[in-house]
Amino acid sequence: MDEKNEMNGAAPEENSAQNGERNTNAPSGWSYSANTNQYKSYEGTSQQNAGAYSQNSYGGQNGYYSGQTNYYSNNGANPYGNNNGYQWDFNRYESASVPNKPKKKSSGKGFRVFLGIIAAVLGCCVIALAAFGIMSLANGALSKTPLGNNPGSSFTQSQQSNESGNQTPPLSLEGKPSSDESVVSTDGKLSATQIYKQVSPSVVGVVVYQYSQSFEPVGEGSGIVVSPDGYVITNAHVVKGAEAIKVVLYNEEEYEARLIGSDSQTDIAVLKIEEKNLTPAELGDSNQIEVGETVYAIGNPGGIALQSSFTDGIVSGLNRVITTKDSSYAMTVIQTNAAINPGNSGGALVNEYGQVIGITSSKLVSTDYEGIGFAIPTATAVPIVQEIIKNGYVSGRAMLGITGKSIDSVEARYYNIPLGVQIVSINSDGAFGGTEAAAGDIIIRFGETEITSMEDLQSCLADSKPGEEVEVTLYRYSATKNNDRTFTVTVKLVENKG
Q1: Does the N-terminal or the C-terminal CB of the chain have fewer CB atoms within 10 Å?
Q2: Which residues make Cβ contacts (< 8 Å) with residue 441, sequence separation at least 6?
Q3: Per residue in 153-191, pLDDT tens?
């Protein structure tokens, strides 16, 4: 298309060279003569610039082809006629020189930018291929090098490539080698895992409440299920003063518990919950254990929040005689270094065969000691438990009805007093009721047996029967030493009902 026609869209156009015909779409008011092969002048008037092609279109100062704004001539000259208007002359139109087209901007700069981008992309590809080669060599070396001496390493590496060509070594967690956990060693000992799985369902939590303005528990401990129908043993000090008791099983099921009875002398108590399908613990003979044997403690240190905690240790000592702050009576216990903390009381001390051989009791409370815990031997606990279940207390056991403490050799030398058991308090319904004996007196003889400690007195009472009359020798001292004296009273032993 001619540039003039392209600019204003109204000038005539030439036919294409291929078909040899000229475009006869002349402007309005013009006609084309095929004979002369020229456009005739504007029809209907003798004026060349009339109508739509007057001063406002192709002539005058504002036309496209004249005046100062002529786009196709220099200095506003009109290549097609005078300066007064537009005169159509096909020959002059045909012969008019076509103005030079504006040169296109050089594409050199864009081409250089394009080449730069291509170079950067190629550089990145080269770097990526080099990195891939290095990783391939490294992974090949790793695949031939063992990860460690442990053949059961949790992580494995392999050289596999995904579809994109990037090596993706899979990391997997390997399971334990298959084994039959039901298999027991030739000597019948179980692994720690087997022991825990066997015994933990038999260890429960014990929560104690007292009626007050608060609904929070006043104490928490542990217990051991000893029968499928709901009998649970624990420590007497755990349930002391309880007005309501809750038992929490290992699976967090909760039951209201009833106190059957307790015995402060052995620190044993028995609870009962209404359930028929419990898992009782297997009780072993504590008389057969030896120092150095491996043992495990299961309980609730700190309470239910840490229920069924499992610790291990050894038997550190046997037949240890201690008196705790929770009982004025001497207790013969097993010593162990298995961790036993507040809340463990009433839990299980288990041997390597999965048998309970002790009821964990008080831990030695002192910042100067660590790794010293105690358990009541089953040989001592079982007869007590049977008595409590049968009678609600331990029947046939004699007592004096006092609280007391031993006078050791250091105190005896310092105060110049004899060894023995000093009376701290006397129960009104005890054996000393109505006698001359008073708090502060020291028991130095029971019948014919010299008493030098609480253990001696406990042993004598164990050999006696309720209702039996015994002469007890006492020593009374004074600050001035002028009124110190020794005297004897006859007492009638009473039955200890816990």
Answers
A1: N
A2: 422, 423, 474, 475, 476
A3: 443 444 444 555 567 788 877 776 766 666 667 778 999
